[in-house]
Amino acid sequence: MISRRDVLSGMGISSLVGIAATFARPASAQNEGHEMTGMQMPGTSEATLQPSPAAPKTGSHTPARTLNGWTLPFKLNNGVKEFHLVAEEVEHEFAPGSKAKCWGFNGTTPGPTIEAVEGDRVRIYVTNRLKEHTTIHWHGIYLPSGMDGVGGLNQPHIMPGETFVYEFTLQQHGTHMYHPHADEMVQLAVGMMGMFIIHPKNGEPNPIDRDYCFLLHNWALHPGTYRPDPSIMTEFDLWTMNSKVFPAIDPIVARTGERVRIRIGNLSMHEHPMHLHGVQFWVTGGDGGRLPESRWRTEVTEIIGVGQMRDIEFIAIPGDWAFHCHKSHHTMNAMGHGIPNTLGVDQSGVEKEIRSMLPGYVAMGQSGMAEHQEHTNRGHMQGPENTLPMMMGKGPFGNLEMGGMFTVVKVRNEIASGDYRDPGPYRHPRGTVAWRTSRDPDFGNPVRKSGKA
Ligand SMILES: [Cu+2]
What we know:
The protein is mostly beta strands. Among the domains are: about 25-205, Immunoglobulin-like, CATH 2.60.40.420; about 340-385, no CATH class. The chain has helices spanning about 5-10, 185-190, 350-355, 370-375, and strands spanning about 65, 75, 80-95, 100-105, 115, 120-130, 135-140, 165-170, 175-180, 195-200, 210-220, 240, 250-255, 260-265, 270-275, 280-285, 290, 295-300, 300-305, 310-315, 320-325, 390-395, 400, 405-410. Strand 2 and strand 3 form a beta hairpin. The longest helix is centred in the last third of the chain and has 8 residues, at about 350-355.
């Protein structure tokens, strides 16, 4: 059981957020990877309600769009792109109703996306505002060994209060990430990671209209607590895309016929078979850049291994299309593992007795788990504080019964390029939605191989 004392002790360490106010902050609209112009508020679903600045196509690439996140602005100094990262504690919201003290960069987890072009020279200042040392490893990027960021091997650790400079020339393009290589078990578990996208200097042979990116992660934020538990290896409570769970994950918006790329990285402890409805996609690259077309594979599910990056591309067709991890436990929130299986068990009477000891308890799972969301919707079920229901989300036809790694690809005929706002539910053409009937001529007499209904 979780006592109030446990909950409060998790809150006891003072927040360091706000100290490094002079550094880049996710203050306004999503910066599109170039010099400091409008940025977008990260990590809030309001982001999708505001018009995004029209994606300025600089050179020959479309700037990446970090789901629920933001792109780090840079300053050009004698031809070198200068970035500032601040490692610090952050107050993070996974979805309304679930907050935690996490660690991240520049006020958010994941940290801001670094975006640059093959051939650029980058200089990245890293300031440590944590209470322990850290470093940054630039995952998958060609660089001098002394810039690779493994604490103790390639450099001394960055001690609390210190700033280190990393500087190298980008010799490749592709989807990469950055993360600490110091006390990794803790620093990754509490959210320190970000994407590093390098666009090809000669543009793309098949231009990309929308370029989305996110990192997959898992969190042991036990029910009723406020700090992720770094000691957990397999049993996690929250499964996130850019540190958000459904329904707080932004939709992936596109116009019919556009070429959409989704760049996916995985810094969790598990593999994630990411499944997209509605289309076959091509697996077009990842850490190794964009592959020649002859090496693309057609898939509907792609496993993103731990530490891997994968790029998928598709031509958008109209509709609301689910996009999610296919491990069904990864599209749920905390569920209290280790509870006896009650499927098919009549629990009448039991509920009342348990409720005398555990107020708010609802017996569930006799005919399935879907009743859980119904109870939650009606306010019958109150979990521990700061704990999301196991299943969430409402659609035009009812409960979605999802959580965790789930979002919706929303494709419409009439969306302006550069508009990333949620267009609302899809309006299905007449006669194209599955319907209820009582006129099945074989109703009551279906063909069965064996067994009793
Ligand atoms: Cu998964």
